């Protein structure tokens, strides 16, 4: 019997409240909390992972830079990019961190195959690439055996802000997107396929959930 995966399609969201919500979800989940996958677009933002160096942020201009608690270096989020946050109990699923990364990457590779786009991993550089250009970035965190943060998948966006950084810490790294490779411009169409491939990789059954962030637990006055 496969485990349920609640799918929240959240539309466009500011970055920091979403980060707080997934952190709170992870901290407050219990043994029988169902796993979730959040899919959304973010307002323009550069995020800098725990190993991130400000030297890789070249010319942010009017786009905010937010240091965060995920792995990885600097990346860009903006409209036209699918951001997906898998909030998964890895112990319950019997999956380690390396396998988590591999399966997420494979779900993106298999999604792209639907449009005859040939993608691959690159040794030592997490993410998914088409030829020499990056189409999806990964930055994850595991706390109490549960994952949060996730992946950013370029579909139909303005790629110019990537020129303001060294993407993922690599100077001059080329980036690409689904639209420029002959795929659809509609995020929903790509999300539909990605959800199916993600569930197939992990053995989940998708269950639609309410399209809004779960409420944060009330703070206790001190």
The profile of the biggest β sheet is: 7 strands, mixed
Counting DSSP E segments of at least 2 residues, the number of strands comes to 10
Terminal CA distance reads 45 Å
- Give me the secondary-structure category: alpha/beta
- Using only CA atoms, what is the Rg? 17 Å
The average pLDDT value, as a whole number, equals 95
Provide the β-strand percentage band. 25-35%
- Note the run of SSEs as H and E: EHEEEEEHHEEEHE
**Strand sequence of the main sheet, in spatial order?**
7-8-9-6-2-1-10
Q: Low-confidence segments, ≥5 residues, pLDDT <50?
A: none
Q: What is the number of helices?
A: 4
Shape: globular
Helix content: 10-25%
Structure description:
With 222 residues, the protein is an alpha/beta fold. The chain contains four helices and ten strands, in the order E-H-E-E-E-E-E-H-H-E-E-E-H-E. The protein has helices at 15-28, 90-93, 97-113, 187-202, and strands at residues 3-13, 35-42, 45-48, 65-67, 74-77, 81-87, 128-130, 133-143, 146-154, 204-208. Strands 7-8-9-6-2-1-10 form a seven-stranded mixed beta sheet, sandwiched between helices. The chain has a three-stranded mixed beta sheet with strand order 4-3-5, with no helix packed on it. It is globular. The termini are far apart. The mean pLDDT is 95.
For the structure shown, list the relevant keywords.
222 residues; alpha/beta; seven-stranded mixed sheet; three-stranded mixed sheet; 23% helix; globular
